[in-house]
Amino acid sequence: MRFRTLDGEVAKVAAGDGVASRSLAERLGRDTPIAYTLIAPAFFLLLFLVAYPFVLSLWFSLSDARVGETGNWVGLDNFRRLLASDIFRQTLQNSIVFTAAALGAKTIFGMALALLLFRIGRFKRLIRGAVLLPFIVPTALSTLVWWWMFEPLYSVVNWTLKALHVVNRDIPWLPDPYLAMFTVVLVNTWRGLPFFAITILAGLVAIPKEMYEAAESDGAGPAARFWHITLPLLKPVLAVVILFSAIFTLADFNIVYVLTKGGPINMTHLFATYSFQLGLQSGQIGQGAAVSLFLFPLLLMIVFTQLRLVRKATTYE
Known about the structure:
Distance between the termini: 58 Å
Number of helices: 15
Strand content: under 5%
Number of strands: 0
Shape: globular
Structural class: mainly alpha
CATH superfamily of the largest domain: MetI-like
C-alpha cells in the first residue's frame, strides 16, 4: 500500500520504526542463551581457579593436613599456634612495615615521576614506554639482577661506592636485618613505580587546562595549583592505584624469596614467604594455609577503606 500524503508518509515511517524496535527486542531475547554461553568460560575459570582453591585452603587451615596426608579437623588450633609463634608475629610486623614503606615511597616518587612525564614534550612516547620496562620484565628475572647488585661477595653497589670513596668498607645489604628490609622495599618500589606513574599520568592528562589557567590568572603559584587543583582531582585515581598496589604488595612473594628467602633471622618474612616455608618446605599444609588466610581479613579491610575513600572523593557538592 502506498502513502502519498505527508501524514501518510509519517505514519509509514512510524510503523516501520515500531516493527524494527520489536524485532530488535525479539533478537535480544533470543540472544540470551548466547550470552550465557559466552560468559560460561569465565565463570568456570573463576569457579575452578579461584573459588575451589579458596574453599580448599579454608579447609586446610582448619585441619592438621600435611604433605601426603588428608588430615583431621582441628578447628582454630592452627590460628592459635600462629598467634603464639614469635616468627609469625615478626612476619606480621614485617608485612605491615614493608607494605607501608613501599606504598609511601611509590606514592611520592610515582607522583613526582608522573608530573615529570607530564611536562616532557619531545620523545614523550619513547620515554613513557621506557618507564614501563621495570613493570614488564618478569619479577624473578629482574630481582636476580638486584640480588647480584647487592650480594655481599660481588656487590656492584659496594664496588661503586668504594670507587667513589663514599664508603671504605663493604656494606652488608642482605646479611644485615634492617638493610635487608630496606633492600626489599627498594626493589618493590622500583618495580611498582611505573604502575603508579603511568596511572597518575592518565589522571593528570584528564584535568582540564582551563582550571590551571584560571588559577594562574588569579595569582596562584605552582604549589597552590598543585594542592588546590591537581591533588584534589587526583584523589579518586590515587585511591584506586593505592588499593591495587596495597593488595599486590601485601601478597608479594618473588622479590623477598629471591633476595633473602625471608632472612636474615626472619626479619624479611612476609605472609607469602612464611606460608610457603611452612606449607611446602616444612610440609605443614594446615599451618601454611592458615598463614595465607590471615591476609584475607586484612585485604578486606583495605578494600573496604579504600572504596569508602573513593566514594567520598567522587562525591561533589
